[in-house]
């Protein structure tokens, strides 16, 4: 049969931050070309209010928009709301659920990642990925007296802090909380905040707006059934009242160094004649639940303890969403299951690029950069992938973008501003490094990771105002040994040193 006529030179798959940024950049670079954006979700994610805070630190809002807004903004972008079910890379053609096929000259895959669930198909195990799953979670929470959160990454951290009026058992496999982001010292700094009472006047820092109401009804239902919405981003819990059934603030019990061994439904559990343990008495004294309570689901931990709860939240990381693209294509995959991409964001297959959560960065990275599946990197990769696709089309060469020189992430945990720079957890530095620390309880936590007198990374919690200086010190790899402890002395304005 005759090959399909190219419907667009450039096709981008995925309406998350990576895909939308890539399509926008291509549309701007090639104003007379049609850019096709194919996405399974009825809304797209747009970056708004982008602000370059310093050389590499950036801040922006993320807005869910109907795809028509993107098409209106950039008339040479055409959005197709349909999931990709197959890629025939040799024929340069992709097939969508709606029965259509689309040929491409260059393709960028930005289909994101899916939450890893500790148990598939169990109605009492929830994963949170998109607006729909977050709302489902909120609905279930209003009736819940006790839930269990599994996982120790950013999502778990935020949930634990935001949930009120419900007992929370937080099971983590590490010794300290938040090990994806922190060392034990920072964890301890934050834990004290978790246990102290939340202040009434919570600082509402709004960076994300979700305008779900504006989306098309039929499309929504479809996306729900396929469960392939885009991932939520910063402040995803903003606007969702995460309140359980009871009237109190925090009631958290942390179970460290354990994993889930087995789940039992109520009936199943009764038959085992095993005993569940009561919720350890909360700091505010009153216990909401009793030992006699029966629960819909029981969780046996590897520590041997069994807790009953209304449901579990599985927040144990994500798996790149590569599945729809694999059949018949010989992609090189990274250890984490993502599509391997080189320093030009190319996968192992000709004319197929990838960006965002779906890919695994396999270039030789800068000594102070690492991939993390985050909002900012999705944007940077989407932007850079478009640049690379354009350069390849025009026969030009392109250097790695500056944003990959230094890992930089700014976020909020437990209402503290948190800035992570470079090898903030001494990742891959071996034993040959030292830490410099400054901590004021309840106020700030500053840690610098030093190697051979050079700063390799930093964790800044609170309003430290050090991010720009530290960013420069990590980037320029200046020998800081002459400054010794002055570097973190709060009475010395180190900015003056280096200006
Ligand atoms: C609950 C939660 C909280 C988070 N909090 C933060 C945070 O505070 N800060 C931060 O930096 N990061 C956070 N992240 C991570 C961040 O959301 C992701 O790194 C980022 O959204 C990845 O963007 P992406 O464009 O690669 O993928 P996604 O945003 O997941 O977008 C993927 C797109 O592909 C589409 N798609 C999927 N399959 C198909 C298919 N077969 N065919 C067509 N289209 C398809 C989807 O519909 C979607 O539009 C959080 C993630 C979650 C789940």
UniProtKB/TrEMBL annotation:
Its cofactor is FAD. The keyword Flavoprotein applies. Gene3D superfamilies: 3.30.390.30, FAD/NAD(P)-binding domain. GO terms for molecular function: NAD(P)H oxidase H2O2-forming activity. It holds the Pfam family Pyr_redox_2. Keywords: FAD, Flavoprotein. GO terms for cellular component: nucleus; sarcomere. Residues 10-201, 272-382 form the FAD/NAD(P)-binding domain. GO terms for biological process: cellular response to oxidative stress. It comes from the Eukaryota. The keyword Transit peptide does not apply. Belongs to the class-I pyridine nucleotide-disulfide oxidoreductase family. PYROXD1 subfamily. This is Pyridine nucleotide-disulfide oxidoreductase domain-containing protein 1.
């Amino acid at each position: 049969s005759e090959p399909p006529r190219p419907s667009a030179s450039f096709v981008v798959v995925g309406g998350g931050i990576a895909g939308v940024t890539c399509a926008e950049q291509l549309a701007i670079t090639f104003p007379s070309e049609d850019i096709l954006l194919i996405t399974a979700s009825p809304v797209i994610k747009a970056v708004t209010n982008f602000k370059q805070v310093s050389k590499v630190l950036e801040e922006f809002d993320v807005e869910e928009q109907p795809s028509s807004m993107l098409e209106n903004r950039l008339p040479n972008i055409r959005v197709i709301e349909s999931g990709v079910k197959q890629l025939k890379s040799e024929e340069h053609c992709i097939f969508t659920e709606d029965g259509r096929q689309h040929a491409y000259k260059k393709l960028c895959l930005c289909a994101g990642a899916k939450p890893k669930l500790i148990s598939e198909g169990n109605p009492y195990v929830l994963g949170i990925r998109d607006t729909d799953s977050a709302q489902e979670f909120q609905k279930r929470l209003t009736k819940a007296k006790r839930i269990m959160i599994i996982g120790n990454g950013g999502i778990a951290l935020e949930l634990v802090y935001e949930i009120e009026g419900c007992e929370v058992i937080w099971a983590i496999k590490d010794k300290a909380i938040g090990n994806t982001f922190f060392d034990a010292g920072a964890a301890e700094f934050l834990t004290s905040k978790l246990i102290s009472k939340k202040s009434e006047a919570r600082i509402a820092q709004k960076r994300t707006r979700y305008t779900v109401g504006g989306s098309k009804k039929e499309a929504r239902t479809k996306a729900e059934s396929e469960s392939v919405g885009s991932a939520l981003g910063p402040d995803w819990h903003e606007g969702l009242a995460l309140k359980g059934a009871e009237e109190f603030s925090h009631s958290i019990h942390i179970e460290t160094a354990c994993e889930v061994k087995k789940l039992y439904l109520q009936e199943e559990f009764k038959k085992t004649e095993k005993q569940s343990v009561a919720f350890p008495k909360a700091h505010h004294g009153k216990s909401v639940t009793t030992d006699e309570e029966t629960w819909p689901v029981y969780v046996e931990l590897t520590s041997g303890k069994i807790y009953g709860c209304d449901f579990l939240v599985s927040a144990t990381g994500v798996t790149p969403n590569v599945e729809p693209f694999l059949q018949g294509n010989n992609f090189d995959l990274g250890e984490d299951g993502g599509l391997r991409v080189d320093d030009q964001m190319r996968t192992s297959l000709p004319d197929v690029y990838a960006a965002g959560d779906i890919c695994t960065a396999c270039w030789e990275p800068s000594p102070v950069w690492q991939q993390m599946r985050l909002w900012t990197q999705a944007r940077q990769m989407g932007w850079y992938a478009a640049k690379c696709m354009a350069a390849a089309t025009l026969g030009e060469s392109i250097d790695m973008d500056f944003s990959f020189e230094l890992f930089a992430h700014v976020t909020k945990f437990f209402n503290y501003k948190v800035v992570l720079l470079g090898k903030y957890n001494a990742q891959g530095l071996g034993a040959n490094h030292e830490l410099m620390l400054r901590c004021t309880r309840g106020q700030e936590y500053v840690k610098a990771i030093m190697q051979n007198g050079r700063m390799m990374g930093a964790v800044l919690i609170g309003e430290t105002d050090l991010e720009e200086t530290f960013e420069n010190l990590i980037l320029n790899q200046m020998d800081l040994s002459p400054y010794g402890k002055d570097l973190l002395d709060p009475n010395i304005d180190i900015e003056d040193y280096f200006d």
